[in-house]
């Protein structure tokens, strides 16, 4: 997941927006998220989608996915 976010961020930073100004991100899922509302969704597929769109207090480390790393939290 971290590689996907890193790749998308790098690709968007390196490219200029299209002439229309609208950018569409298409993501393939094995299970459809139950809700796109972060206050209602509870399935893992929805959680992954929320993490792509919103910053959380902590994220996952690159080397060990079990080690939390700060995102919005500073300590």
Please indicate the percent range of residues in DSSP E strands (runs of 2 or more): 5-15%
Q: Report mean pLDDT, rounded to a whole number.
A: 77
Q: Give the overall silhouette.
A: globular
Order of helices and strands: HHEE
Measured as a percent range, the helix fraction is 25-40%
Characterize the main sheet.
Answer: 2 strands, antiparallel
Return the structural class: alpha+beta
The strand line-up of the biggest sheet is: 1-2
Regions with little confidence, pLDDT below 50 for 5+ residues: none
Number of domains: 1
Give the helices and strands, then pairings:
Layout: H1 2-14, H2 44-53, E1 58-60, E2 68-70
Antiparallel strand pairs: 1-2
What key attributes describe this structure?
8% strand, 31% helix, alpha+beta, two-stranded antiparallel ribbon, 2 strands, 75 residues
Task: Describe this entry's structure for a reader.
The protein has 75 residues and is of the alpha+beta class. It has one domain (20-75). The chain has two helices and two strands, in the order H-H-E-E. The chain has helices at residues 2-14, 44-53; strands at 58-60, 68-70. It has a two-stranded antiparallel sheet with strand order 1-2. Strand 1 (58-60) and strand 2 (68-70) form a beta hairpin.
